[in-house]
Amino acid sequence: MKIDSAEFIRSAPSSRELLRDGRPEVAFVGRSNVGKSSLLNRLLGRKGLARISSTPGRTRAANYFLVNRRFYFVDLPGYGYAKAGLKEREAWAAAVDAYCRASLPGALVVLLVDSKVGATQLDLEAWDYLSAFGARIVVAATKSDRLSNNRRRSALDAIRRTLQLGDDVKVIPVSARSGDGIKELWREIDLHLRSE
Ligand SMILES: Nc1nc2c(ncn2[C@@H]2O[C@H](COP(=O)(O)OP(=O)(O)OP(=O)(O)O)[C@@H](O)[C@H]2O)c(=O)[nH]1
Ligand SMILES: [Mg+2]
């Protein structure tokens, strides 16, 4: 897809700030540090749009980006940040829960799983949680540049097994660094936007 415009619109830490203007949405969900902001920037071809941090757990609210004035990319805060205190975890859960309740099942969810780390117990819980909203989910196995071709293939199989994915669910290896899988992921996003 040709990106004519991409702009940060707002941060939504609670249901009050959520956008509900009927535009289609694509939400990016995954562990803290899994590469959500990097992938979003790569998809949009805008390096500094979503904030990338070497310190995990920096995204605390749902961040809306308006693309081509037609649809939203939503960068959700990452889960599983070990050093997060109880207050932070509660803030995280509140922001994500508010978003999911209001915007799923309509949105397409891109669930990011680190291809080197594999799917964790928290990823499985996230999968179950998101599926319960009836959301369409595509799994992006991130940082694929860190694995050889052989190891990438077994990593994808392992993710499928751990998340117990059916054949109808796509797992796309992606790299914000090399650009691997970006076209394939756009194809899925396009399909969703067309069906809206
Ligand atoms: N090798 C490699 N590193 C990546 C890739 N994508 C992201 N990273 C690195 O992973 C770290 C986290 O990236 P972010 O995009 O900030 O991750 P995030 O999921 O948005 O993190 P939070 O907002 O804290 O939840 C950064 O150090 C990135 O440079 C990738 O495709 N390949
Ligand atoms: Mg982020």
Write the layout of secondary structure elements.
Elements: E1 6-12, E2 25-30, H1 36-44, E3 62-67, E4 71-75, H2 86-103, E5 108-114, H3 121-132, E6 136-142, H4 149-163, E7 171-173, H5 182-195
The structure holds guanosine-5'-triphosphate and magnesium ion.
Question: Would you kindly provide a written description of the structure presented here, covering whatever features stand out?
Answer:
The chain has 196 residues and is α/β, with parallel strands linked by helices. It has one domain (6-195): P-loop containing nucleotide triphosphate hydrolases (Rossmann fold, 3-Layer(aba) Sandwich). The protein has five helices and seven strands, in the order ββαββαβαβαβα. The chain has helices at 36-44, 86-103, 121-132, 149-163, 182-195; strands at 6-12, 25-30, 62-67, 71-75, 108-114, 136-142, 171-173. It has a seven-stranded mixed sheet, with helices on both faces. The mean pLDDT is 90.
